[in-house]
Fold this protein.
Amino acid sequence: AIHPDDPPFPVLGLPRIVSTESDLQTILELVDTPANGLCYCTGSLGARRDNDLPGIARRLGPRIHAVHLRSVQHSADGVFYEANHLEGSMDMPAVVRALLEEQAARRISARADWRLTLRPDHGHTMLDDLAKPPPACPGYSLIGRLRGLAELRGLQLGLSRSFEP
């Protein structure tokens, strides 16, 4: 599964090639097989304001192999930073709903891979993670990621109730 560029902008003059839905679609069409899929990372794709995250999940959903959920906040000056998972500039509930709809469609069509693998991508350093000695892994704190997972799981469970009769 291909992961979008992080960040999705040129760095030190080096171009980025996997930053938009069009880029992803091109890669998927070059080798048009279910084995060629994508890692749907909302943090990487969400750093660009012009990416429609729920739309990408709906349109490319059948080719999603893994999901990294992360939220970013955009500033007026074009800068972005990582926000809490349920905050920021993106519509996390709309993204999770699109992913749940894709998962339901896969299950109905009896796909063996109907369950989407999801993880909270990054988390803020907090609580006892602040006291842990270096080398710390920024973005991968135990407590911050656990908090993100709990929030995202709660969102997923709440939204999944709307799929039940």
User: Anything to note?
Assistant: The chain has one domain: 21-163. The mean pLDDT is 92. The longest strand covers residues 64-69.
